[in-house]
Each structure stands twice: as C-alpha cells, then as structure tokens.
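Protocol step 4 of 6: structure prediction from sequence.
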Amino acid sequence: MKNGFIRMAAATPKVKVADPVYNRERICENLSLAAEKKAKVVVFPELCLTAYTCGDLFLQNSLLEEARASLEQIIAFTDNLDLIAFIGLPWEHLGKLYNVAAAVSRGRLLGLVPKTCIPNYSEFYEARHFVPGMQQPVMIKFSPAGKAPYEVPMGTDMLFQCASIPDLTVAAEICEDLWVPAPPSIRHALAGATVIVNPSASNENTGKDVYRTSLVTGQSAKLVCAYLYASAGEGESSTDLVFSGHNLIAENGTLLVQSQRFCNEITYADVDLEKLHSERRRMTTFGPVSDKDYRKISFDIELEQLDLIRSFEPLPFVPKGKQDRDKRCEEILAIQSMGLKKRLEHTGCRNAVIGISGGLDSTLALLVAVRAFDLLNIPRERIWSVTMPCFGTTDRTYQNACLLAGTLGTTLREVPIREAVRVHFRDIGQPEENRDVTYENSQARERTQVLMDLANQINGLVVGTGDMSELALGWATYNGDHMSMYGVNASVPKTLVRHLVRYFADTCQDSRLSEVLCDVLDTPVSPELLPPSEGKIAQKTEDIVGPYELHDFYLYHMLRFGYRPAKIYRMACLAFAGQYDKETVLKWLKTFYRRFFTQQFKRSCLPDGPKVGTVAVSPRGDLRMPSDACMRVWVEELEQL
C-alpha cells in the first residue's frame, strides 16, 4: 500500500443450490483471481457456500456438515493468499442456526459474524430457519480436519484489525442489516471500523437497484467509511426470485464502482484509507468512538505498491455531467447573489461599484451583482461598472467591459488612470520604463483607490472580483485587487468561474449578452499590467504561475483531505496523463506550495465573502493558518519526488 490506497473486491461466484463442494471450488477460483489482482479485502455473497435459496434444506444435517467441511478447505486454500475474505454460510451453534459471514485469512478462521436482522416479510422467510446473532462475541471451538482445534469468536461486535496498516479495520453486517433503521454498521464505525463488508442476497425488483445503491453510498457517507457490498447472482434458485449479482463499492458517499447486473463477476476498487482517516479526524462530531465492548481480531497483509485502477477527476471543483454542472452553477450563483443581497440590505447601500476589466472574474462579479439587485428590486443603473484603462489594457478587453456593462443595463463609468499612475511614479521616483512589480502593483492599487472613493461618493459598496485560486496562490496585489467591501468570488476557484460564466451565457435570453460573455471566455487570463504586444495581451497569468487547472487540483486535495505532496503528485500525474508530463506537474506543484505558504498574509485579512463549496480559504471559516508558518516539511518531501 502506498499513499493510503488498498485494493478491495466484491465477488459473486456462480453457485449451485445446496452444493457446497461446487460452490467451494468457485469461491476458491475467485479468491485466486482476487489475489492475482492484489485485492486485500474480499467479500462474497450471503450464504454463498450453500446458496441463499436452499429453503428448508437448511435444516438438513448433510448440507450443514458439507458446508462446514467446505469452509475448512477454503480456509486451507487461503494459507498462501495475502488477503482477508468474508464468506457466507449457515452455522449451527448450541442447537440454533445462524446466517454468518466467516472471516478467513492466511489459513485461519478469524471469526464468525452472524446476521442481526432476520427478515420475515414479503418474499423473505429467514426466520423459519435462522435466529438473530448475538451482539457480544462468544468463543466457539473450531476443529478443522487434521489440524489442532482452536477457539474462534462468534458475534456481531467484532473488529478485524490489520497489524501493518493501522487505518484498515474491517467489520461486517449481512444484507438486511443495512436496510433497517439502525444498522449494526453504525456501532462498528463508531468503534473504529473504516471498512464495512456486507455479504448479501438481495433479489431484483424493478427499480430496486437504485435504492440499493443509494443505501450503500449513503451509509458510506454517514459512517465515513468504505462499504463493500457483494450480492448473490446467477445460480440461485429462480423458483420465485431472480438475483443479479449487483456488487457495489463505495467510499465516503462516492460510488467507486458497481458491477454489471445479471453477470456474475468480481468488482474491484482502490479504496483510499487515508482519505477516510483524514475526514474522520476533521469531523469533530464523528463519534464518540467507543470500542470497549468489541472484540479485536488481528490479521496481517503485506504492503504492496499498486498500479492504481482508480481514476481521479482533473477538475474536482467542476461536476462532470452537464446536468449536474448546470445545477451546481445555478446553486453557486444563488449563494453568491444572496450573500451580496444580505450585505446590501444590512449596510443600507443601494449602490454598488465594480471594477470591470473584460476578464472572467470581474464578469462573474458583475453578473452576481445584477442578480442581487434584481432580488432587491433595485434598478440595475445603480450598479456602477467602472473601467479603468491603463498601460496594459487591450482594445478587446476594454470593448468587452463596455459592452458587458451596457447589455446588463448598469451604469458605465470610465476612469483612465494612466496620468494618475505617472504622477505617483514621479512622487516615489519610479522610472516608467522600469516595468517591475512596483510598476504593476501601482496600477492595481490606483484602481482600488478609485473604486473606494467612487463608492464613498455615491454611498455605495465595492464588490470584489478576485477568486479563490488567486487567493491560494497570492496572485493579488496586497491592498489592491486584494481588497474590497464584499468579495463575491472569494471561494470560487478559477476552473469553476469559467463554467459559471458559460452557464450564464447559455441560459440568458439576450443574444448580445451571450455573445460578449463568450468572447470573455475566449480571452486569455491576464492582469493586463504590462503594455500589449502588437495590440494583444502580453502578460498571461498561467505562463507565470502555472495552469489553474493544476493549481485547483492541488488546492482541493491539500485542503479538503490534508494529502501530502507525494500523494497529490501521484494523483495529478494520473489525472492529467497525456496533458502534462510528470516534470511539469512537479514544477507547478512546487510553485503551488511555495506560494501557498508565503502568501497566507494576504488571506489573513480578506474581506467578507460567501462560502460556496467544501473548500474555502477565509481566515474566519475554513483556513485558520498562521501567516508565518514554516513550509520545510512539505518542501523536503517535494524535493525527494
């Protein structure tokens, strides 16, 4: 295991009803295949050693004895397999029959987990044969043929803990246990289980697969765990029911993989145990953890390097499907505009001032302001769209800014700042031909001064335009574009800004507005602080600080899950394979960490702004970070990559 990833599997072998020998052979075949694929946790369906649909044959001694003998052979078969497996079978104890999951690893039976909730309604009549399992584990004697007997715990409250991987703690519940109001897995997770396995025999009804999937993913989210669900499939009796072998593996609310239904197969997924551990650590409301009544059973597996079969979304802030993306965009625009609406109401301001450049960020801020003013029934003319051309302004961005202000019905105000900046240069002794950081930042601070003073003139509020990606990198002039009276884009990453503007362009009813928004989208991201080259933008932000899609990827995984640089690097190389080579990924990852740490002082004094997602950098909300924190630990790891 590296970076917290471990491969797990849900396997549905073809079975024959009441034929444990045949079923044992299929289970062993599946175990061999799973081991070859380096799966370390494998779960099989409920009662798969006999088949679930045996009916009254469960009361036959011959079947029960054959099932137990077959389990012994499976246990022996795992002697050289580096995994832990959970196998369903009927088990008699003190004259009662239990539906159990046998935990098996390296040639030993580790424990028997009985089913807690025995359904006896509709098509289910398990109470005819089985009794509910005991919560507190009891010790039973297991006597495998030809080997010395040993004691094995049997009960629901058991944790199977991996000696070499502290984050890998497995617990089991069986089929119906998940469908009840208070599943046993709740106790298991609170006691420390990070992985829940569920051997199941869930028959198919129309639409049931959707509900089953929601149960599994929802439980994994609620318990901040990985959930492995293996269901019975082909081979079960079709006297009254059909089983589809619907296997599911979910992680903290995300469905990693599901099998094709009506096709017995092994379903694999690389589960991120480090993510689960990080999320539980972050959630101070997860708990209280109590494992005092649980029996802990130790097992071990070898740590192996995996060629991950898991994929990573290159744009974690942006939903992949158009329908989900449009819904997210509408929701974020609503959050932004409602935040600004409240601020305008509270301050009594009926005017707003926005510096518009013809770029993406100021365009989004203006669109949000228009929405807020419409909600307040304040005429849009009270939004002052201020364009402040200077040395780097191009005709394209200037014209787009003017067109945008006009088509939205706001008041356009042009305040050229060239002469004011030149006077300032003379006052401080800055040669205009020296195009250093002073040359650039003087323009940004002059623009902020203009906006603030105009706001004072009209009793208005300066709406900030900077986005979260710029704040993460410190790509903002301190007390320049860094400052405003309310920052509507403060928690919107650059990769999402583009989609928000695109959504507005696609859904607005004004073709002129849509046209200018599309041209803004096609314009390179630039602060436009250096003179144009042959009339075109000479200063492209991503050439200087790196691609925003990479930085947003780094930002999301660093802040959301606390991942270390080596893990983020590995994930980014996979997510952007074919787009950026490893050297490029590492180059900009180093830039990200350096800028993120050194520029915290700019984030420590941010104006107010609404949080829109799970990652934000507000010093009052999600990121309480010292401005002078040392970055040695992270830099040293980066240098070793």
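Step 5 (inspection) to follow. The mean pLDDT is 95.
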